[in-house]
Amino acid sequence: MTTTESAASDRSGLGAPPFAVISGEQVQQVLHGREQEIAELVEAVYRLHGAGDSVNPPSFFLRFPDRPTSRIIALPASLGGALRVDGLKWISSFPQNTKSGLPRASAVLILNDPDTGYPFACLESSVISATRTASSAALAADRLSRTRSRPTRVGFIGTGLIARYIHTHLTATGWEFEETGVYDLSPSSAAGFRGYLERSGTKGHITLHDNPESLVRSCDLLVFATVASAPHIHDPSWFSHHPLVLHVSLRDLDPGILLASANYVDDVDHCLKAETSPHLAEQLTGGREFLDGTLNDVLTGRVTVPEDRTVVFSPFGLGVLDLAVGKFVHDEVARRGGLHVVDGFFHELRRHG
Q1: Is residue 4 very low, low, confident or very high in pLDDT (cuts 50, 70, 90)?
Q2: Which of 109, 120, 198, 313 has a Cα at 20 to 30 A from 298?
Q3: In whole angstroms, how far apart are CA 70 and each of 56, 73, 86, 110, 343?
Q4: CB neighbour class for 75 (10 Å; exposed up to 12, middle 13-18, buried from 19)
Q5: Mean pLDDT across the stretch 229-257?
């Protein structure tokens, strides 16, 4: 393996590109402190996707009869515009990992050259996935609250890696809270998250809750980042104060709560599948009328977010976001001269030998 300055510059007519491997450590080094740049990138990708300058097919779920809570998901995608890249995220979700302290998700991202189709990089992608998820959530929190009172009390239900990244991206893009509420089924996880908040210099009061109802009722911005496979929050009256809800884990809320709320998603067809709460709401009502729009509709001003209703953002997670963040990382690593190229990775490059 060699280190080179660039493995994916303009190579018209030069054959297959070099193939580079980018480690999780390198990914983290590039993305650390770049939250505002990533927010701008994520917004640009949403706008490209909304304009039809992307291909984002349905995700494919690999499930296991002997491990029903686990799955591996393939997210193929293609992004146009100035970002122009194709690729695939291959991400596993094994909730039982959390019992041993291991993160639930692990992932790799393959980037493909749009001219030849050859892959030119493989990146560790759990950090990329968490980053695009968190950046998307922070962007939604900002844009969905612009016609409402800006939240001052945030609550996290589920306190794993995704929650930590969302908090980081919220604070790095200008959010400050008078109070931060924390709830997790695991007291040790909740305590660990509180420790992270204290170490990161979180302003305001930090409250550990012993039940989800007290947290929901006391916060005007709610972040659901759990490993729930079915709704566990059922009472719409908990939301009578009309909070803004980032429903990142997608399966926490009873359909009745969604039907009493204004609902926004990242992509309608992607989100209404795989037994997500919006999918259950569609099955219950027989239609999609409960949806008020997409995040891109909000970005472009095609819809107005109401002030007098609970607002729920349910993002399925788009593969084009992974591609954009992955390409950002790849290009920065190349600029720094740190690409680890696998010599001879592509061997049979002559059609006739």
Answers
A1: low
A2: 109
A3: 23, 10, 27, 22, 35
A4: buried
A5: 97
